[in-house]
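Suppose you are handed only two things: the residues of a chain and a line of SMILES describing pyridoxal-5'-phosphate. What would the bound structure be? This form records exactly that question and the answer produced for it, so the two can be stored side by side and reused later without any lookup.

QUESTION INPUTS
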Amino acid sequence: MKIKPPKSSPISEILPKKPVLLMGAGPVPIPEEVAKANSIVISHLGETMKQIVSRVQAMGQYIFQTSSQKIFGISGPSSAAMEMAVTSLLWPGRKVLVLNLGTFSARFSELAKGVGAEVTEIHTPQFGPFYAEQIKEALEKSQFDVLTLVQGETSCGVKNIDLEAIVKVAKSYGVRTIVDAVCTLSTMPLQMDEWGIDIVLVGGQKGMSAIPGISLIAFAEETFEFISKREATMPHWCLDPRRAYKFWGLGEYHYTAPVPGILAIHEGLRLICEETLEKRFERHASCSKLLQKCLELMGLELYTPEKFRLNSVVAIKNSFKINVKEMIAFMINEHHVEISGAFGLDIFRIGQMGEQARPENIKRVLIALTAGHAKFDVSLNLEAALAEIEKFEGGGPKASSRSVDEMVALS
Ligand SMILES: Cc1ncc(COP(=O)(O)O)c(C=O)c1O
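ANSWER OUTPUT
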């Protein structure tokens, strides 16, 4: 043996001494129940796992709002779920219309090109979401097999507010739809069956308040049947939904399932079911509006116009032209709060997904943001924001019973 072991030390040596409150675009802080579940390994096959899988699917039907039983977990990030969706419906000779709003919706093009599909990308004429009328025009001009879109484009904070109408237009032209609900599911309404969506996918690390690296995907029953009958070879083995069905439908071996991840997702879903979607949507909407109002009161400018502003990830202009990278590092090091920068745009982003959407966490991020700006000699009106939060706490939905320190400890 020539290679010697490297010098090793416990992970605690490099983890931050004080946990960092994750207030960026994901991952988000996880509740204690999720953290506990994520530390357990049981056999990936057998009766207990079967029960867990069937519960995850039943709770999945609730969050996706679908009666379909073809809900699968994927041992991989949301991008892997995007890849499963794309590879299932596209192959050489098939055509896809990709509605490109930014980094994540554009990823569908890369994935579709990878399987040899013919890709047409469209953009919106101005900054903002797509509307059904524009999609109708595109579908009149050319024939497509599949249309892909995001419910919320995390990279720029835009919400596709006309999603339902777009999906319905696509359906009327016989075009199947893939919806990325990665940063939106369980934070705002999405009705898979009622709107007629073929495939919806989500990652664990955002609205579900679970962990990164595991995702969920739901296929409409008829869509799954169509995929089952396809003759084109499936280029992926792990991401083949027909093989995934062996585990998720029949309780048999496909690959060794990500057991702790599935347990963590179970707990994330359970907490959503306990809260109920209605209350969860209300909490997310009201907390995000509170955050947005506070940011404006402080003297900052929001990047996205209110009409199509994404509530789950709020984009803020870097109006004072400060060094965002340095500000974020300062906020992490000195205040133990993290927010996100951006992919090329001169903005920074604050998340409102899952446990992020709590007044006490909004308060902490705003305090850290004020300090971050002060480091660059920019003074923000924190008092006005704190007064607004106080007003909200008096009349808004009750904040979590957990203290800030407890939340930080869990993040
Ligand atoms: C809307 C959207 N889609 C897809 C992704 C990709 O997720 P992942 O990094 O888990 O692959 C993200 C990640 O931020 C996202 O926000």
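WHAT STANDS OUT: Residues 18-27+276-410 form a domain with the Aspartate Aminotransferase, domain 1 fold (CATH 3.90.1150.10). The first strand starts at residue 21 and ends at 22.
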